[in-house]
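Changelog-adjacent note: as of this version, every example in the card shows the full chain rather than a window. The one below runs 481 residues end to end.
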Amino acid sequence: MNRFTLLKQQAYINGLFIDALNNKTFSVTNPATREEICQVSDLGEKETEQAILAAEVAQKAWAKVLPKERANILRCWFELVMQNQEELAQILSLEQGKPIAESRGEIAYGASFIEWFAEEAKRIYGDILPSDKTNHRLMVIKQPIGVVAAITPWNFPNAMITRKAAPALAAGCAVVVKPAAETPLSALALAELAHQAGLPKGLLNIVTSTDAVAVGKVLTESPIVRKVTFTGSTRVGKILMEQSACTVKKLALELGGNAPSIVFDDADLDNAVEGVFASKFRNSGQTCVCTNRIYVQEGIYEQFLAKFKQKMAQIKLGSANELGVTMGPLITQSAVEKVQRHIEDAVQKGATVMMGGKPSALGGTFFEPTLLRDATQSMLIAHEETFAPLAPIIRFEAEEEAIQMANDTEFGLASYLFTQDMSRIWRVSEALEYGIVGINEGLISNEIAPFGGVKESGLGREGSKYGLEEFLEMKYLCLKI
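Full-length structure tokens:
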């Protein structure tokens, strides 16, 4: 552990790394080995309130800082993140379990949001409107919303913070972050680098805690916090939405997914296999945009199945830094139990396990990449997000049938389709009830495009020029001359 200069064990409030008021700590463990990494400060309600008050004071001053100056500090933060990419990746893999190559990719992906919004800070434009009277001048300006609460998940412990904090800071807001208790170390390392970049105290606060309910309640019910941005389950998102109602907060909710991939007869088969594979097995299947259901048209069903099985055979399970490892463990034992439940249900209803299907001989929370053939819409895997390396292949005949099955869910985050028919591309893309559609591509996330869903997959968008608007209030000025 001595080799890590960015590994912090205390929470970060008002520019200082602090212990909990009662000196309570919690254990952070490596999911690949189940060994303890370190103990981290376990904060509660009082410390969360302190963070909010610090953010309120800092935000008022930050809002007056010229956009170019805010941009320069964010740019410095970006450069420090990239200079420390390897250490950040090692810390991320240690607490989250993903292979080191994926962690390096996440650090670069997370940094891209800091870079993007550093540039966008200088592009917060208003409008001059046509006047309604000869002695009136009508204007629209945009101002920071204020203090922002960001509640982030364990599956992307770096990028899910930068995707929220960078636009908030660029807009002139202050941020109180509650990272997942499984992965607080990446959040604290980011705070240390923001501190080194010259970000004024109080603008970025990291509340590490195992009491998500209590901390979440303080954040959502505080009248000082004007915006809550959350990535996580739909169930928790609904609770936060309800708790935020008493102060009518602005919300950005990136919630559950149940992503379909539709492979048509006329698809480039090799490209479809690569695209679905990339979407399905990234981070051991633990992303909200992972393909959860794979619909393959009758004419190429057997061909796709054979090629996909060959591709899956190349996966190597193991700990993050083992040579050639491409997939790590699941995050918890409950995740293992969920995928087992989904497999058992599918087999009972007629599916066949073609490979995998059980916990890995490596032990712990490692689970074998699993391929199911003859899956159907009646199975749990078609209606619940698995969040694991389970690939169910469902057969379909007609385009209309595939669209109907793909839309048969309360979720609407990401979807994918593979076809070389341009008319079908437009037709199916417009018919899919999802905020994101990947067309002949399985990896669709970047800082340039808006990320978010429809239906019960959430509210608002992250990334892109639209992501900055989430942290701004519009003000209309009517001037009589």
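Structural remarks: The mean pLDDT is 97.
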